[in-house]
Amino acid sequence: MAEDYKDILKAWRKNTVNPFLYDHLDVIIPELRFVKKSQGTSGRERWASPLKLDGTLPKNRTREKTLMYAGDYYLREQGDFDNGITVIDYLMKKTGMEFMEVLRDLDRRFNLGMPDPDSEIIAEQIIHDELCEKVLGELRSYFKWCLKNTRSQKAGAVRGYLKNARKFTEAQIDEFDFGFVPSWDKVEKYITQSKELPKDILDEVCGVRNEFGRTSVGNHHTLAIPYVCGEELKGFIFRTVEKGVEPKYLACKNLDRKSVFFNIPEKVEAILVVEGEMDALTSTRAGVTGVVAMGGSYIAGDRRQQVSDAFHRGVNTIILCPDLDAVVDENGQEKPNYKKRYQAVQKSIHTIKDVNMDFENIAVVEFPYPADPDEFVKKEGAEAFISLVENALPYWKYIEKNHGLLK
After folding, report:
1. Which residues, at least 6 apart from 340, have a Cβ–Cβ distance to it below 8 Å?
2. How confident is the model at residue 2 (pLDDT cuts 50, 70, 90)?
3. Which residues does residue 328 pair with via DSSP β-bridges, in sequence order?
4. pLDDT by residue (tens digit) across 44-75?
5. Residue 291 backbone dihedrals phi, psi, to 5 degrees
6. Enclosing H/E stretch for 274
7. Cα angle at 242 between 239 and 248, to 5 degrees?
8. Nearest-CA neighbor of 10 among 99, 131, 137?
9. Please, what's the largest Cα pairwise distance for the chain?
10. DSSP result, 363-397
11. pLDDT digits (tens, 9 = 90+) for 89-135
């Protein structure tokens, strides 16, 4: 029941509280002297303050030192844009209140309709959540069955990609619940007719069609990857196994990929953070435990929540393992882009320390040449990759070794 209420509060905050705080930012935080603007190079509506988040003037004075953009809901300082904080975080720091106290105070002052844990709305929400879980579970089983039993060329291509390109064994394919997606019309028919579940719930938890009713899922994007965090199935990402199709990955609509690390266990002490979801699974296949994906090049912005969630799960060691990309120099030769990687690692460390300033157990894996975890494992083998992880540099040594890259 506690988890159900937590989810309902999260939805209330997203759908009611955040839009209200944005619309009334100048009233909620009068001390920062926000002014709403709608012009500029971005063309996006925004609130702008001449002050820093601590209320002081910057050395180089400007009318737009701290910003909040429409639909973003984070207060962000120019010069440190990737490490914004929510208005709730700001109010907690300002008032000394706990999270729930701030929400109750806002509800009392502005009558925002904060859900009561004993209300009829809560009961309806629980029924709705159970339906969502059931649809997701049925989809996972159906995609998995299709991968094993469909004899089409497309299904064979997905099986071949997993076995040959990614080197998964039959047991690992089964363990990770990979699936094959037939046409999306068949998926909808299976869920709504065979399982007699509502189409609106299917669209909510795994919507893939665009506004014109079309989708590449089940056509070009036929590999289904369950998006699991803390043993909870949150949705799916779909990959193409065809050459030349971009983007390679599509996520079902409404899938939150920023608040929780992909593949993180319910309870875990040490995590290895890679960029992509398939990298996380191939690294797990190689024998590394606690491999998670951040779903980007570095941890910052909204992904700050991933770090907070990890700490709540008991994480006391974070090993960063971003890709080492190649860059073409002035002579047309490829060379490792150490500078880009160093900047990404710096941003991730900054975010982790921003969540917990005292946290020191951070290390960084270094590739000897341009590669990502999957490429390195395929070329050098699982043992070589495990050795890289075991010899990851403490973050301060990594910074000391590479800080000259920014000069």
Report:
1. 325, 327
2. low
3. 334
4. 688 999 999 989 998 888 888 999 888 778 89
5. -85, 130
6. strand 270-274
7. 35
8. 99
9. 69
10. EE---SSSB-HHHHHHHH-HHHHHHHHHTPEEHHH
11. 899 889 998 888 999 999 999 999 998 877 777 777 778 888 999 99
